Amino acid sequence: MTDDPTGGPGQEPGREPGRVPLPEDSMPKGGVNAPVDVAAAATPAVDPRLIVRQQGLKGYVQEFRRRVSSGELGSLPVIVALIVIWVVFGSLNSSFLSAQNLSNLSQQIVGTGMIALGVVFVLLLGEIDLSVGSVSGLCAAIYAVMSVTHGVNQWVALVCALVGGAVVGLIQGVFFAKIGVPAFVVTLAGNLFWNGLMLQILGSQGTINLPGDDIVSKLYTTIYGAQIAAYGTAAVGVVLFLASQLLDARRRQAAGVPFRAPLDIAVRTILLTIVAFLAAYTLNQYKGLPLALLIFLIFIVVLDFVLRRTTYGRQIFALGGNIEGARRAGINVSWTRISVFMITSTMAAVGGLFLAAQIQSASQTSGSGNLLMNSIAAAVIGGTSLFGGRGSTWSALLGALVIGSILSGMNIQGLSNALQFMITGAVLLAAVVIDSLARRTQRAAGRA
């Protein structure tokens, strides 16, 4: 889940496998034209996948320790944090880890998680979008007014809401990429403008209730009660993961570049199998598999493929890592930036529709409150760097789980909103501090 687009463990996009930049003090005296030891210079760094393949489990453990010591933490901090949160709240109140609460949690995180999924894309550029909350409320209002007030076909209203989100991203992206207005300023202004437009669309009514049997509500409330649904989804996920890993290893082997060892693939597949079937078992203990969660997972997998397996995805990582180098490599910087903002706003629209379905209405408060901060926090806490160039779509799921678990646990304990805000803010700050320290460690190790 934390692999880079090239398929290597922790390898930065655009960096050749197994090569580590030399620190400045290793430069030969006299500059680049000074004579060097050809034999020493020709000795390449050993690729981690070769160590795993040659040494087996011992090599796998050594590689894990090397990555942690060099600051390549990946999703490890957020996974540890999630385990700690569940253990703490579970010990305080046994109902927190009940199948009912965890099943409800899996539905409740979808709206915020969808928005965070779009935020991941813009953060990979090293930019920010402060308008996602207002955009989510605006698109929910568009759907509600068209389908409920004016009686437009629900599918047409749904498409119009999503197109509205894409148009918002296009407008903001043009101001940023073409005119040169900083993304912070553009989206901050957008946050105010789109919120005002939402209020204008809702009109004097202020609140429009969804009927409950419309398409958007069904996408959120539908739960597949048959146990085969949850277990089948888990099995399909594991099989697809294993197939993609084997296919990637075969492709890299045929190209003559380092590839994952069978042991490495087996360990990853076993861990995924345990997590997937444990989640399926938990969901089946209550009502079954929520459709909203299934849609969320599909979005994550598809967008993860886009980021890690397509040229477009590699261009996004390249821009976040070094914009001038990306421009010289022939990447259309303006178009890539605009398209990323369009993806972010479209995902905000998707999240806004799920949030509207959750409360069965679109109102003047839609997209307000702490939705913006929770969405950005979910992406950052999940492991996406605020500095650009490093992250994954799975960050949205992990971060949303962390924030959702904190809010759910504190609600069960009856803690005040003030404490919830402070604790969530502290967790966000901790995530940024860990990211900053990891980057510093990577630079010290010559890997950043």
Write a structural description:
The strands form two sheets. Strands 1-4 form a two-stranded antiparallel ribbon. Strands 2-3 form a two-stranded antiparallel ribbon. 40% of the residues are buried. The protein contains 18 helices and four strands. The protein has a domain of 278 residues: ABC transporter involved in vitamin B12 uptake, BtuC (Orthogonal Bundle), CATH 1.10.3470. The chain is 70% helix and 2% strand. The protein is mainly α and 448 residues long. It is a multi-pass membrane protein. This is Xylose transport system permease protein XylH. Keywords: Cell inner membrane, Cell membrane, Membrane, Sugar transport, Transmembrane, Transmembrane helix, Transport. It is found in: Cell membrane. Part of the binding-protein-dependent transport system for D-xylose. Probably responsible for the translocation of the substrate across the membrane.
Secondary-structure map:
Layout: H1 38-41, H2 48-55, H3 57-69, H4 76-92, H5 99-124, H6 132-149, H7 154-179, H8 183-202, E1 207-209, H9 215-221, E2 223-224, H10 227-254, H11 262-284, E3 289-290, H12 291-309, H13 311-321, H14 323-328, H15 333-359, E4 361-363, H16 371-381, H17 394-413, H18 417-444
Helix pairs in contact: 2-3, 4-17, 5-12, 5-15, 5-16, 5-17, 6-7, 6-8, 6-15, 7-8, 7-15, 9-15, 10-11, 12-13, 13-15, 16-17, 16-18
Beta percentage is under 5%
- Tell me the number of helical segments per DSSP (H or I, 4 or more residues long): 18
Percent range of helical residues = 55-70%
Question: Which CATH top level class of one domain fits?
Answer: Mainly Alpha
Poorly predicted tracts of residues: 1-46
SS-based structural class? mainly alpha
CATH topology of one domain: ABC transporter involved in vitamin B12 uptake, BtuC
Number of extended strands: 4
